[in-house]
């Protein structure tokens, strides 16, 4: 008989969320360094990239290592456009819906999973002065270097809120006097300006399937973007840019 009374424990697969998180690129790294709420662990940079980074401000008390570009290629992957700099960080803590009492413009994402699209939407939302980006805890990309690079610094400048249930979140936004404006290419009504809503939530769905049925039902108004050309649909990040321009243009 074996001396081991119990079989050996099976090792669990490594948790992807526990892997080191690297933000790369000059703009994302600069924004992360300037964010007092961000935990910075180690900065890896080429000499030239560090000089360019320090033109925008000090690196603070984070440990700095001068490395060759090839080391960053190996660490981040050959396709990562790192511009010679990478910052190891801890993920940011998300805000809560309760923090939006004083907000007037938010963007709500219904199961948009592509980190490039989410990053581009975050960048545009930040540029147009949105107060927050809201998504579900599931069916949304986690914080990664790809997402941060696409957001070009917006991850550290914009409030991110994750909710367990989008339907309940829309109901809560309405309780905060937000008008929930849903965008769908099949909606019967076109977007009409001005958008005279003091508090506005722009609700966007994933490409292909669009907004889910329950999400559409909870929106106060469903609209489509009028496109006279032969192509009748846009990438969701482009649609978000038009919606945000329309929302902020009406306020101006």
Topology diagram in text:
Blueprint: E1 21-24, H1 26-34, E2 40-45, H2 47-54, E3 63-66, H3 69-76, E4 85-89, E5 105-110, H4 115-127, E6 132-136, H5 145-151, E7 159-163, H6 166-175, E8 179-183, E9 189-190, E10 200-205, H7 213-218, E11 221-224, H8 236-251
Parallel strand pairs: 2-3, 5-6, 5-10, 6-7, 8-10, 8-11, 9-11
Antiparallel strand pairs: 1-4, 2-4
Helix pairs in contact: 4-5, 4-8
Brief overview:
The chain is an alpha/beta fold and 252 residues long.
General description of the model:
The protein has 252 residues and is of the alpha/beta class. The chain has two domains: 16-89, 60s Ribosomal Protein L30, Chain: A; 97-251, SPOUT methyltransferase, trefoil knot domain (Alpha/beta knot, 3-Layer(aba) Sandwich). Helices cover 31% and strands 21% of the residues. It contains eight helices and eleven strands. It has a seven-stranded parallel beta sheet with strand order 7-6-5-10-8-11-9, with helices on both faces. Helix 4 packs parallel to helix 5 and helix 4 packs parallel to helix 8. The longest helix is centred in the last third of the chain and has 16 residues, at 236-251. It is elongated, with a radius of gyration of 21 Å. Residues 1-16 have low confidence and may be disordered.
What value does the average pLDDT take? Answer: 91
- Global outline: elongated
| Largest β-sheet summary | 7 strands, parallel
Question: Strand share of the residues?
Answer: 15-25%
Total domains: 2
Low-confidence stretches: 1-16
Helices, by number, come to 8
Run of helices and strands: EHEHEHEEHEHEHEEEHEH
**CATH domain class name of the largest domain:** Alpha Beta
Class from helix and strand fractions: alpha/beta
CATH topology of the largest domain: Alpha/beta knot
The count of DSSP E runs of length 2 or more, i.e. the number of strands, is: 11
Helix content: 25-40%
CATH 2nd-level architecture of the largest domain: 3-Layer(aba) Sandwich
Radius of gyration equals 21 Å
Q: In whole angstroms, how far apart are the ends?
A: 82 Å
The CATH superfamily of the largest domain is known as SPOUT methyltransferase, trefoil knot domain
In spatial order, strands of the major sheet run 7-6-5-10-8-11-9
